[in-house]
Automatic annotation (TrEMBL):
Residues that span the membrane, as ranges: 39-57, 63-84, 91-119, 155-174
Residue ranges occupied by any Histidine kinase/HSP90-like ATPase domain in the UniProt entry: 310-403
Name of this chain's protein: histidine kinase
InterPro entries (alphabetical): HATPase_C_sf, HATPase_dom, Sensor_HK_TwoCompSys, Sig_transdc_His_kin_sub3_dim/P
Record's catalysed reaction(s): ATP + protein L-histidine = ADP + protein N-phospho-L-histidine
Listed CDD domains: HATPase_UhpB-NarQ-NarX-like (cd16917)
Keywords of the record: ATP-binding, Kinase, Membrane, Nucleotide-binding, Phosphoprotein, Transferase, Transmembrane, Transmembrane helix, Two-component regulatory system
Coiled-coil ranges from the UniProt annotation: none
Residue intervals of the Signal transduction histidine kinase subgroup 3 dimerisation and phosphoacceptor domain: 197-262
GO MF, one annotated term: kinase activity
High-level lineage: Bacteria, Bacillati, Actinomycetota, Actinomycetes, Streptosporangiales
EC number: 2.7.13.3
Length: 412
């Protein structure tokens, strides 16, 4: 089975199990362990073949004793060979088809073999065998003429019987393939959902911890480069480090809790933890100011839905983190505007700064996935995100998300 990109989605377990389900063997000549249902089906098929053989036995009256003995022996062996139909369906069908050309008591087992081939082999294999069965009807009627019906009518009856059995097998095979396909698609969808959940949790962890760790690095750097700072400033920086470390551990514990219990939220895509909204932007900006950043907030939007406000909050948070990493000491302007029906726009702008001014200062390592994650977040919300330097020497992160008319959040 292929996905939308043309990649094979069958897992190794399914590739091994597919022959067992559709072909009746485990690959090659290795037999498959029969299930309870398989045993019941095989017993029923064996009894059916025996029943047809016993009914046909009445038609052998007047047959010479040697031929009657041969019929009985080969008929019994044919019924017993039905138990081999799962391992060698094609070979068994060919042998029984050849025997049924001139023997009466092999007919029941031959029908079972034809049905088995139709179920367990593709049309390019089962089709010629079905055609071979039909071609054996004229020689059979010449060798064993029937008294009840003319040869033409009896041939039509036998042909209809063979084609009915073969068509039944084709229908059973098609149904099994459909069930298998639906099961595989369900498993693939479940795996994609698990992958999406892991990516969502990773994105949430990055959004939360990147901000906290950058705050820790900023305060620790201040203590490192100003060891002679006043005691009050050192105490304030140490308190900020302790508070942000506590918050980082708390956020990490909550995200890991969601990872350990991924099904606790049901169909809700939002993690089970307190989530920021648009009303929390002033607190975020104030926290950055206390860390020494020069941030100006212009917020001309309120009452956005919680999910929309959370996306804008995360975008602004990541943009401030990047500004703190790459343009330390430069002023940052955050502008949030929007209204229902018009969309919600967020822009974070800061000068690029002089890279030589901080060439000796340690820089925070980054994975380079922050802006990529923000672009993905904006696309998932139905919006878009743009970022990059401007001719005026500034770096801008600009996002615009849809805000449907008539929708508001709790913080109105």
């Amino acid at each position: 089975m292929k996905d939308a990109r043309g990649r094979d989605t069958l897992t190794p377990e399914y590739r091994w199990a597919l022959p067992a389900v559709l072909l009746g063997d485990g690959g090659g000549s290795r037999p498959v362990r029969r299930s309870t249902r398989d045993w019941l089906v095989d017993i029923a098929v064996f009894l059916l073949a025996c029943g047809v053989t016993l009914v046909t036995l009445d038609e052998l009256r007047g047959v010479p004793a040697p031929l009657l003995l041969a019929e009985q022996v080969l008929g019994a062996l044919a019924c017993a060979s039905v138990w081999l139909r799962r391992r060698w369906p094609v070979g068994l069908a060919l042998v029984l088809t050849a025997l049924s050309t001139f023997l009466e008591l092999v007919g029941g087992a031959s029908l079972v073999a034809l049905f088995t081939v139709a179920v367990h082999r593709p049309f390019k294999v089962s089709g010629p065998i079905a055609l071979l069965n039909v071609l054996t009807i004229p020689p059979y009627l010449l060798i064993r003429p029937q008294q009840e019906l003319p040869p033409l009518e009896w041939g039509i009856v036998l042909g209809a019987l063979l084609l009915t059995v073969y068509a039944w097998g084709i229908v059973v095979r098609a149904r099994r393939q459909l069930i298998w396909s639906l099961r595989q698609r369900a498993d693939a969808a479940a795996e994609q959902a698990r992958q999406a959940e892991r990516e969502r949790i990773a994105r949430e962890m990055h959004d939360v911890l990147a901000h906290r760790v950058s705050m820790l690095s900023l305060h620790a750097g201040a203590l490192e480069f100003r060891p002679d700072a006043p005691a009050a400033d050192i105490a304030r920086a140490a308190g900020a480090i302790r508070a942000n470390a506590h918050l980082a551990l708390q956020d990490l514990r909550q995200v890991i809790g969601v990872l350990r219990h991924p099904g606790a939220g049901g169909d809700d895509p939002v993690p089970e933890r307190p989530q920021p909204t648009l009303a929390d932007l002033p607190s975020l900006v104030e926290e950055c100011r206390q860390a020494g950043m020069d941030v100006r907030l212009e917020q001309r939007a309120a009452g956005a839905p919680d999910g929309l406000g959370r996306n804008v909050y995360r975008i602004v948070q990541e943009a401030l983190t990047n500004a703190r990493k790459h343009a330390e000491g430069e002023p940052v302007t955050v502008t949030v505007t929007g209204a229902p029906g018009e969309g919600l726009a967020a822009e974070v702008r800061n000068p690029l700064g002089d890279p030589l001014a901080h060439r000796h200062a340690p820089r925070l390592p980054g994975a380079g996935a922050g802006l990529i994650g923000l672009a993905e977040r904006a696309e998932l919300a139905g919006g878009r995100l743009e970022h990059g330097p401007t001719p005026e020497g500034q770096f801008v992160v600009r996002a615009r998300l849809p805000w449907p008319r008539g929708t508001t959040g709790e913080n109105t």
